[in-house]
Amino acid sequence: MNGFERRKSAIKEKMMNTVLEMLRTCEPRNIRIADIAAEADVSQVTIYNYFGNKEALIRESIKRYMDMNYARFEQFLDGNPTLKEIVRYTIQLDKETFETYSPAMFQQMLTSDPELASYIEVLYREQAAPMLVRMIEEGKKKGEIAESMPTATIMAYIGMLKMQSHTLLELAHQSGRSGEFMEEIINLFFYGIRGVEPSES
């Protein structure tokens, strides 16, 4: 990457970081190009030249945020964590997002932006889902998951929990004991309502 390309990349990154910061407190529809330009210290023309319109800039900013979290997760996996550590780390990533951005904002974006919804669908189908299958199969080899439990059933169960993740995080927040609550959810995921680990049975 030459000097021009580095400067161009730095300007794009600055604008996307600005949008991500603004989304902490402002709904996408209320963000104006003029406000982004002022916060990022660039001209409105620059924003249009780089992204075409506000919607594309917000979309690319959210995609970048998701890509960064996915990269963090992949880096975490390089440390060969246990399945329980992986679940705990995944919940922590969701918790960070929940505390930074409104779940309603993401839902609004997915509903109003088919391109973003398609991007997330492809990301899950081509990267996240295959990785999850590998983690489950590895968990079976390590004895962390029962060999007799079909991978498809585990995938369905995890998907069901994922769909309710914001509700669980909200309940954890309301409980006043967020850390303990989520640890209990993790234990429930692994050991069921009996709360008995395999070594104790």
UniProtKB/TrEMBL annotation:
Alphabetized Gene3D superfamilies for the sequence: Homeodomain-like (1.10.10.60), Tetracycline Repressor, domain 2 (1.10.357.10)
Alphabetical list of InterPro entries matching this protein: Homeodomain-like_sf, HTH-type_Tx_Regulator, HTH_TetR, Tet_transcr_reg_TetR-rel_C_sf
Domain HTH tetR-type: 9-69
SUPFAM superfamilies listed in its UniProt record: Homeodomain-like, Tetracyclin repressor-like, C-terminal domain
Highest taxon of source: Bacteria
Sample GO molecular function, one term: DNA binding
Pfam families for the chain: TetR_N (PF00440)
DNA-binding region per UniProt: 32-51
UniProt keyword terms in alphabetical order: DNA-binding
PANTHER family xrefs: ACREF/ENVCD OPERON REPRESSOR-RELATED, TRANSCRIPTIONAL REGULATOR, TETR FAMILY
Record's protein name: TetR family transcriptional regulator
Species for this entry: Paenibacillus cellulosilyticus
